[in-house]
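Title: Prediction job returns without error message
Component: structure pipeline
Severity: low
Priority: P3
Assignee: unassigned

Description:
Job completed but the reporter wants confirmation the result is attached to the right record. Sequence as submitted:
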Amino acid sequence: MDSHVGLRIRMRRKEMGVSQERLAESLGITFQQVQKYERGANRVSASKLWEIATALRTPVSYFYDGLSDRESAAAQRDAAQDFLLSTDGIELMAAFPRITEASVRRKIIELVCVVAEET
């Protein structure tokens, strides 16, 4: 699965005409790390995949295209779990339940979905 995601990263990067060095610089990592992601040698965390998607101006779901439904669901569960265990995920999980108005929570979810589609 990681090799599939890596292949999709490489494909998108090349479609955009972005070098490994330029992508690495925008992510604050070395180009060797980008190489490892693209080869599937290193696992891409959910937060890093989100950064890559943002840098390559594509939705995160792009990287899962072509996986079977079972593989895609497993990959998305892994990505969600990685996010929930990140600093941002923990902070979001702590703050979101404190919003007592259901309509406000729904609007926040809608906002996040719109922003995610635009990046």
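Comment from assignee: result matches the submitted record. The helical segments are 2-15, 20-27, 31-39, 46-55, 69-84, 87-95, 102-118.
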